[in-house]
Design goal:
- The chain is α+β, with helices and mostly antiparallel strands.
- The chain has a single domain, classed as tRNA-splicing ligase RtcB (Alpha-Beta Complex), CATH 3.90.1860.10.
- Helices cover 34% and strands 26% of the residues.
- The protein contains 15 helices and 19 strands.
- The strands form four sheets. Strands 7, 8, 9, 11, 15, 16, 18 and 19 form an eight-stranded mixed beta sheet that branches. Strands 1-2-3-4-5-13-12 form a seven-stranded mixed beta sheet, sandwiched between helices. A two-stranded antiparallel ribbon has the order 6-10.
- A hairpin with a 6-residue loop joins strand 4 and strand 5.
- Helix 7 packs antiparallel against helix 9.
- The longest helix is centred in the middle third of the chain and has 35 residues.
- It is globular.
């Protein structure tokens, strides 16, 4: 990206002033090097978002920002409930894709002693890959109950513990979900996909706590150097993708009927108070609950594996947070608290210390922000920072962000060779698709350390701990 026309506001904050049809400025977070590496398409998409009706304060881009569908991935935008719009492209196709981190309560050495057996057991238990199907068949009124109840439904049906819900965004259940707004086709796609990882950048990883940056917060989060944890990254599978596909078409048709001029057809949207807008929000919230239930059921499967292979592990939930959502939240704007609809596409909610929604043991330290990395480089646990409400509505990055397309990654890397190379470095990869491994090569992603350093420098979230992979189950 050409930075010559950007106004640098601080070490890690840059502005494109509002001009022309833009209603608000674009604010980009990141170091000079990260922004220079961003595609020019990110600037174009962020400017287009700034033109949408009812947008408030700014069109924000996180340090891991890259080109997406309509909105940039890493894009954040909030809208007035009465004058604003909701955009399916501003949420994404993998609705409520997110990360869940599990504390094992054992040292990494206990994992290394049985790593091969553990990798086999996890791979044999966790369905992964394109079209992967689980043992659980959910349909009819049971499907609707899951879409209303989320992780709470899963726990009530024996897939987890009641205490898991307090450590899950929305306490495990997104309110106001409307399964009746989800098409039969979307539900059919999900019938056999509940409790599965999926493909692409989704994974289940056993990790070691490699470094601590904030000892007090790490202790509150239950993280100590050398501990073993599990991270799960997945979303709402085929159901969420189908909802996104269908509502993009409906929103585009609705926009034409209203004479709403869009700077990009991929920014198809609908007024929040319109029938289409309300139907989408109802369906999207159902997809959020689908994703929360999915990660809860995967947690149950992980506990079964560890009970057999590493019986000393306690497998307790640190936190679960999504990064493809539109949430109605309260934020301070121009000196007063307002309810707004916050789109986070490839961006993570990062509530600051003291936020009333956080569980009491975590509240003084801020919300855990779980940052997924690549299978060869590791991940991070961050925490929301005080004052970040004014910086992108208490949002932060969600991962490293791709630096090249999957097509280019396939051209450069061979999946089998990557598996051998990573095994030599102490990371066991298990995947049904060597093509998928190549597409997700560590070299296809940005420098994660640079991304989280920029998030901290920008005042979005601070570093708590760095995690390194030991075993990775890839979709």
């Amino acid at each position: 990206m050409d930075l010559s026309t950007l106004k640098q506001r601080s070490e890690a904050e840059w502005e494109i002033p509002a001009e022309g049809d833009m209603r608000v400025p674009v604010i980009l977070y990141g170091s000079r090097a990260l922004l220079e590496d961003m595609d020019e398409k990110v600037r174009e998409q962020a400017r287009n978002v700034a033109c949408l009706p009812g947008i408030l304060q700014g069109s924000f881009v996180m340090p891991d920002g890259h080109w997406g569908y309509g909105f940039p991935i890493g894009g954040v935008a909030a809208f007035d409930p009465d004058e604003g719009v909701v955009s399916a492209g501003g949420v994404g196709f993998d609705i409520s894709c997110g990360v869940r981190c599990l504390l094992l309560g054992v040292r990494a050495e206990a994992i290394l002693a049985v790593r091969e057996e553990l990798a086999r057991a996890l791979y044999g238990t966790i369905p992964a890959g394109v079209g992967s199907r689980g043992k659980l068949h959910v349909a009819g009124h049971v499907m609707d109950a899951m879409l209303r109840g989320g992780a709470r439904w899963a726990v009530e049906h024996g897939y987890g513990r009641l205490e898991d819900l307090a450590r899950t965004e929305e306490n495990g259940c997104q309110p106001l979900a409307r399964p009746e707004c989800v098409s039969d086709l979307a539900k059919e796609r999900q019938e056999r996909e509940v409790g599965t990882l999926g493909s692409g950048n989704h994974y289940l990883e056993v990790q070691r706590v490699a470094a601590i940056d904030d000892p007090a917060s790490a202790r509150a989060f239950g993280l100590e150097p050398g501990d073993a944890v599990v991270s799960i990254h997945c979303g709402s599978r085929g159901l969420g993708h189908q909802i996104g596909t269908e509502f993009l078409a409906r929103m585009l048709s609705d926009a034409r009927g209203r004479g709403l001029a869009l700077p990009d057809r991929e920014l198809a949207c609908a007024p929040i108070r319109s029938q289409v807008g309300q139907d989408y929000l109802g369906a999207m919230r159902a997809a959020v609950n689908c994703a929360l239930a999915n990660r809860q059921i995967l947690t149950h499967l992980v506990r079964q594996v560890f009970a057999h292979v590493v019986p000393a592990a306690r497998v307790e939930l640190l936190f679960d947070v999504s990064h493809n959502t539109c949430k109605e939240e309260e934020h301070e704007i121009a000196g007063r608290t307002r309810r707004v609809f916050v789109h986070r596409k490839g961006a993570t909610r990062a509530f600051p210390p003291g936020h009333v929604s956080l569980p009491e043991p975590l509240r003084a330290h801020g919300q855990p922000v779980l940052i997924g990395g690549s299978m060869g480089t590791g991940s991070y646990v961050l925490a929301g920072m005080a004052g970040n409400d004014a910086r992108a509505f208490s949002s932060a990055c969600h991962g490293a962000g791709r630096s090249m397309s999957r097509h280019e990654a396939l051209r450069r890397w061979n999946g089998k060779e990557l598996v051998r190379e990573l095994a030599a470095r102490g990371v066991l990869i298990r995947s049904p698709s060597m093509r998928g491994v190549a597409e997700e090569a560590p070299g296809a992603y940005k420098d994660l350390a640079a991304v989280v350093d920029a998030a901290q420098a920008a005042g979005l979230a601070r570093k708590v701990a760095r995690l390194e992979p030991l075993v990775c189950i890839k979709g």
